[in-house]
Amino acid sequence: MVESLPAPLLALSRLVDEGNKEAIQAIENIARDILDQDDQQFYRVCEKLAPVLLRMEVKKIVESQSRYLSLPPQLSQFERDPVFLAARPVGRFWYRFDMHTLDDEGLAVVRAPRRFSRHAIFQYLDSTVRIPDVELHLEVPLSYRVGELVGWLSALATSQRDDAQAGIVMLSALVAPLLVSAPVQSTAPAGRLRAGRK
After folding, report:
1. Please, how many CA atoms are within 13 Å of residue 142, restricted to the half-sphere of its CB?
2. Is residue 95 located within the same domain as residue 115?
3. pLDDT tens digits for 126-158?
């Protein structure tokens, strides 16, 4: 949680949310400085910085006014849900994240575009809609899960349009049965949702 950050980092994260360029530069400088520290310290600080950096990247996506795939009629109830709408750019971010990896030395992040088979797309959708961990399944609102997946599929559509459209059909088939017994929740989850991912 961002609130658990030390006071100076918490103040910086709030300034970042307001678009303060000096605060953004300061966060980026901190991230660079961390690279010189030992591994355990690096990971501890990264855990605290990750929510801030994620919010920065998602904010850029929101400001870019990206377009999203339309929902089928069976899922239309999500269209005005603020949690669904907030989750879509997060899903688009995770797709971009999936297009990068560490270099052979593990020191630099490099772009590594990849294609997803329909089987892989279905597995990702299924593991996110029907989260195997029961506690996490109950904690993360269905509207958030659907929004994140629509964002991910919308980013996929830039290079795999037909597969992304097929993914929307798969998503509808997975979610529709859940709507019969469970109302759409409308509270945002506390943490990152990446069920079944690397």
Report:
1. 19
2. yes
3. 999 988 887 877 888 999 999 999 999 999 999
> Over 50: is that where the pLDDT of 53 sits?
yes
How many domains are there within the chain? 2
Find the domain containing 19 and state its range. Answer: 1-65
Q: What amino acid is encoded at 152 in this protein?
A: W
Asked if 146 and 75 touch (Cβ cutoff 8 Å), the reply is: yes
Helices 161-181 and 142-156: crossing angle, nearest 10°?
170
Give the span between the Cα atoms of 142 and 182, in whole angstroms. Answer: 9
**Using CA atoms, how far apart are residues 41 and 51, in angstroms rounded to an integer?**
17
Instruction: Give 16: exposed, middle or buried? Use CB within 10 Å, 0-12, 13-18, 19+.
Output: buried
Secondary element (H or E) of residue 110: strand 109-111
Is the pTM value of this prediction over 0.85? Answer: no
Same domain, 131 and 174: yes
What is the CB-side half-sphere exposure of residue 66 using CA atoms within 13 A? Answer: 25
